[in-house]
Amino acid sequence: MDDPAAARRIDTVELLAGSESRNSRHQGILARELARQAVLVAAREDLGLATRDRSLREGGVGLDRPAVGRVLIDVRISFAKSGEATLELVHVAGKERSSLLETTKAFAETETLDYEALAAWCAELSRGEIASALRKIVGNANAPARRTTPSAQATSAEVEPLLRRMTFAAQFAAIRRLHQQTRGRVATAAELAALARGYAHLGVLSELYWHPANAAFKARAMLYAQRLLAANVPPAANAEATSLARATTGYVLALSGLHRAALAQFAEARKSTPLPPWADAAAALCEFDATRLMEIPLDAAEGELSRVCLVTMAEHEAITPEDFDYETNSLLETRLTAAAVELPHCWRIRAAAGRRSFDAAQRDTFDASWYRDLGAIPRLAPDAAEVVKRHAQTDLPADNDAELASRATLVKSLRAADAADRDEPSQSVLATLIEETSFTGALEYAQMLVGGYDRDETKQAVAEFRKTVLPVVEHHPLLPMLDEWLKFATGSRIDFDADKLLRTIDASATTTASFDLLDLGYREPNQGIAGKLHAAILAHADHTYRDLALLAYRYDVEDKAPYVRRLFAASPHAPQAVAGMIRYEWPRVRDRASDWERRYAKDPGVIAMLASRYLAEKRPADARRCFETYLKLTTTRQWASLWAYRHLAETYRAEGDTTRWLSTLEEFLRQEGAAESRGSVQVLIAQHYLKHGDYTQALHYAESVDAYDETDAQIVVAECRAYQHRWLAAEQAFRSVAENDPYRPQVLLWHRYCAQTGYGNLSAARNAVLAYAKSLDEEEDAEALEPDALAGVGHFYLLENEPVTALKWLGRAIEAQKKQNADGAADPRDVLHTALVADQLGKTERRDELLDHVAKSGEMFVVDGRSREEIVAFAAALAESLAAPARPPLGRAQLDHWIESAPDDDRAALCYFAARLLEAQGRKTEAQAYLRRCVALPTSDATRALAAALLRRRGDEPNDIAIAPANRETRTTGG
Length: 975
Hints:
Layout: H1 4-9, E1 12-15, H2 29-45, E2 50-53, E3 70-79, E4 84-93, E5 96-106, H3 115-127, H4 129-138, H5 152-164, H6 168-182, H7 189-205, H8 213-231, H9 239-255, H10 259-270, H11 277-286, H12 290-294, H13 303-314, H14 326-342, H15 347-354, H16 368-374, H17 382-392, H18 401-416, H19 427-450, H20 455-468, H21 479-490, H22 498-502, H23 515-519, H24 528-540, H25 545-551, H26 561-570, H27 575-584, H28 586-589, H29 593-599, H30 604-616, H31 620-633, H32 638-654, H33 658-669, H34 675-691, H35 695-702, H36 710-723, H37 727-740, H38 746-757, H39 762-777, H40 787-799, H41 803-820, H42 828-840, H43 844-857, H44 869-883, H45 892-901, H46 904-920, H47 924-936, H48 943-953
Parallel strand pairs: 1-2, 1-3
Antiparallel strand pairs: 3-4, 4-5
Helix pairs in contact: 2-3, 2-8, 3-4, 3-8, 5-6, 5-7, 6-7, 6-16, 7-8, 7-9, 8-9, 9-10, 9-11, 10-11, 11-13, 13-14, 14-15, 16-17, 17-18, 18-19, 19-21, 25-26, 26-27, 27-30, 30-31, 31-32, 32-33, 33-34, 34-35, 34-36, 35-36, 36-37, 37-38, 38-39, 38-40, 38-48, 40-41, 41-42, 42-43, 42-46, ...
């Protein structure tokens, strides 16, 4: 630097807020923060300077020039597709930007980013090239000296009790004390380990903020751990020092959600000495050993830590066959609520529990004990210290008017002290933590006000809220969003403007926690500002347990398989990761199934996934064992029991044992508390008897169903009447179901009955379906349309002999199915129907594309735990026949084999498809026989009606099994 005197006047390094590197392959917030925080660690530890980070709302936020005595730095990191990372430091002075450093490093090109290697590189740069680059503009006058330091025991006695208490105030106090006592000298190994732990704790405790602070704290933890590791690796260090460094690094990685890497460090640490108790608790977290964590007494040194670890394990939704498994998630909810009851002062735990159970979310954060934690923070601003002293001695309830007023004063005092504060972290960071904690509660309360029924009471509550709560968060960046909710609550804003609600969110600072805010907008992810934010959140997700566990479950993340693979790479023992691999990557993990069944014998989510997979692979005995295990774990939710009993019953039906299938379902009906699910099981049994021609028993079960499942039961009753040739009674029943709600797919059943049997008012049924189809076309939320409904309309147009329109609707159904299923598979029956229509219209390219989809993806479409292999085989044969017409025609023996071995619901469809194939080959007599066979078989879709329509068009009246004789006088009217 040209002016050494000016260099000496610089006492603070200030970072611009983090920003996106749009051309970077990886834009994770933690990866970004490792680069940014490396600069601050270098300034603090190697140059003896104070630091400020605008991302944490400290320093000159919004200004393009720093205050006097400060230097402003911008840090960027980007990742090329080759795996090469580039880190750049830029000195910013108004509009002038000058590069201080640009350096690159090649990392292995893998699907998952190696955060441990990245942290090691950034820590190495921090001690070397980054420190040298900063010296060019600030000099070296304040470099820490190596001199006598206090003992590790003294450090532990002062700081350790604070590190054990899981509040952000206690952790802030511990870290600030550590930085204060190491200012001007090199930190000891014990102090570096304590700093790493403290920052890791702050990172975990701030994970639920709608702010990226947690990534900054975790990055600092990882960098301090790497400093400790670099100074204490063999051969220079002794075994005990090396073990501490390894244990600390593992601990930080564990709390950052990098469990596989953490376990490797713990394994190395154990080679020299046993793990410290805090590291052992983190190892239990990495291994998802909830029992080990729950056995730690709450009053033990690691008691509070163990509860935080339990919560991080339990707060994510389980990955299960049914997308939401009540039993698994209720088990997790129980653990969250228990932890919240045990640690009412830990906001992080209660906030996580509150998202599952409102009762667990009662806010006691800002009570007297919290103010006492603040009292341990050294050198608070005088006004802030006075507020802390007053409330630490008075046990006032949190969030009352006096406490809120004091909290607002506290935040202002902390912000005002920023310029004179030389300690780390600054009091502005503490203010940010208070604001973020307060804002989450404020926004939740504002949403609750929107639901108020009494307008006058709501207006009064909003006025009180503005008077007491808003002063605490008046400078929060998302305050306009909060204000929109208040306007909505009082009715001053009638229209709910989702884009306006979300406009104040800074896309560059979004994390996966920001999904909470995105969900408030009630918009699809690809629309408006919500769409941009959704894309930003996905881009900013890190390859850590917390981010990946969320993305692997989120309803609006379409391709979940890559996230599941990364989740498994980061956290191989997480039940979500194991269940996700079973669901999305089964061929890669099939060989681990037996081991996982033993290890996760008490995890209902993993057991359910294994059971479902075994059933799909036609391993009924293995599936039955897992379903029985699952039922032993089921204690709270009847929907979970119903799912398991239904599939347990299927294991018997797969072996041809319908007696045991039926007795299993009837056993469920005898279970205590089965009332809420009784109707659906009765309908299932009624449908069984209907398919087997026992109409008396079918009616017995269907007619005793309660109102909740009445529609399905009425359909069974209608079908029984049809099979009993009580044509008018059947039509009346179908029509009654349809007219109860004309905008539901039951209108399709009415029309199919009339078209198939020749009875009823076909004209009225046709008009009902047309109205229904129009309602689907007018639906604004196209993603909400059910594929079955779209396919049903397509079949209607086939029955109406309008193939062009049918092709459009069936195509929409297939695309909807692909989006709905994680593996991109569509129902092979619908795809085959569509392929046949495309062939009829001469669209051979479209036909071949559809047949290829069945061949490649058809078996992935599992129904009742079984793939559709017979239809897939038929599709392949059809494609070969069309590609090479001269080949020997498909024999009836093969067709009959597929039909007889197919599930009940597919047999009629295969008969219909066989008839279409034979007809195309000129084998009309054989085709006619398969059409008549189709009409005689039960099915849940339109296949029988389509077969009947084809027979009638060819002048062959279908037989009396499923259709009325032609000479009856009560035929369709207006048709």
